[in-house]
């Protein structure tokens, strides 16, 4: 259930654009927030089209030039509707970033050898230059987070939108290029065309078969049969996987997430855990992420913005309920105490208030 509030009779997009233009000119950030934070995805899309037509400028470019800090970051992420946003996030995360590492190796201080001053050979000007290593990386965590935390219908919408953009490399080919091994197979299976079992009802017999297969693929044997974990975690509906989780605990007295922890590692483990946590209770998964972003000294604003913005139109009310249940504090109060200014006003507008 979404947490944003939208006027029952919102102004026409053209009027919103005029009001936004005036607010940008006056640097009236609360007025900008009041409009954009209270429009749903389809309404924001119309506003962006109208703004471009009226002022020959993208609304995102206006935000980029006139705002700054976490408020700018949040509004830019908020502008697209959810599927387009996920596609943009995936595309950015799959765009490789190149970093150069300087390997500074000081001379060996333990040697007593002195340079040969009798040589006539000139010194190599490059010999004193530090060695550098160039690395090209993608944002694996964001890619895995998005693909593994979306249900089958959301994934199909994302893939269709991603692959439909002219001149783009298909999503599966891009994943194949940048990922390898079990994690590659997990992600490719997640974005596959159709689940093996996607019925709304849970089949108890299939649940027991899957539980036994997972046990034989993990705890019962030396080593792990990763293919079994990939097939069951990615080719079953979330209600079915949640039933598998419950049955495994009852049958073997060990939670399936602990099995994943002990049997897998790295990005592959992160992907499996994300799928499992979201299948069992996705609002609880995000409530925990929000808690971690505001826990202790300082705030992980990137994570806080990411979760609030991406879930406000989907299930934020359920996330708020899980947060209150688990941490005995309202989410909006936690956000209020960890943020300030117009950035706080924006997040509070998206999260809403609980009576």
TrEMBL record:
Gene Ontology biological process terms, A to Z: response to cold; response to heat; response to salt stress; response to water deprivation
Gene Ontology molecular function: any one: calcium ion binding
Keyword annotations of the record: Annexin, Calcium, Calcium/phospholipid-binding, Repeat
Biased composition (Basic and acidic residues): 123-134
Family: Belongs to the annexin family.
GO CC entries: cytoplasm; plasma membrane
Region Disordered, residue ranges: 98-134
Pfam family, one: Annexin
Name of the protein in question: Annexin
Ranges of Acidic residues composition bias in the record: 110-122
Domain notes: A pair of annexin repeats may form one binding site for calcium and phospholipid.
Coiled-coil stretches noted in the UniProt entry, renumbered to this chain: none
């Amino acid at each position: 259930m979404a947490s944003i509030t939208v006027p029952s009779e919102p102004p026409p997009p053209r009027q919103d654009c005029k009001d936004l233009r005036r607010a940008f000119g006056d640097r009236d950030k609360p007025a900008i927030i009041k409009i954009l934070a209270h429009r749903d995805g389809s309404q924001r899309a119309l506003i962006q089209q109208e703004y471009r037509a009226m002022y020959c400028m993208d609304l995102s470019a206006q935000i980029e030039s006139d705002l700054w800090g976490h408020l700018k970051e949040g509004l830019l992420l908020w502008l697209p509707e959810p599927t387009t946003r996920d596609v943009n996030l995936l595309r950015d995360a799959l765009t490789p970033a190149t970093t150069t590492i300087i390997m500074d190796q000081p001379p060996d201080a333990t040697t007593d050898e002195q340079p040969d001053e009798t040589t006539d050979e000139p010194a190599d000007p490059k010999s004193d230059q530090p060695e550098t290593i160039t690395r090209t990386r993608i944002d694996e965590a964001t890619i895995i987070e998005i693909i593994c935390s979306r249900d089958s219908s959301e994934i199909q919408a994302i893939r269709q939108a991603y692959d439909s953009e002219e001149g783009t490399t298909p999503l599966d080919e891009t994943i194949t290029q940048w990922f390898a091994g079990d994690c590659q197979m997990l992600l490719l299976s997640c974005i596959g065309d159709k689940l093996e079992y996607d019925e709304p009802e849970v089949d108890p017999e299939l649940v027991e078969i899957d539980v036994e297969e997972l046990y034989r693929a993990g705890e019962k044997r030396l080593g792990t049969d990763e293919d079994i974990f990939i097939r069951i975690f990615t080719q079953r509906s979330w209600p079915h996987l949640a039933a598998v989780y419950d049955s495994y605990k009852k049958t073997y007295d060990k939670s399936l997430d602990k099995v994943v922890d002990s049997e897998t590692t790295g990005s592959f483990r992160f992907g499996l855990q994300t799928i499992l946590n979201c299948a069992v209770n996705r609002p609880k998964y995000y409530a925990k992420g929000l808690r971690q972003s505001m826990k202790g000294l300082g705030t992980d604003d990137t994570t806080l913005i990411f979760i609030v913005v991406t879930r406000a139109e989907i299930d934020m009310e359920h996330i708020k309920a899980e947060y209150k249940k688990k941490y005995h504090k309202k989410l909006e109060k936690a956000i209020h105490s960890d943020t300030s200014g117009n950035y706080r006003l924006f997040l509070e507008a998206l999260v809403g208030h609980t009576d």
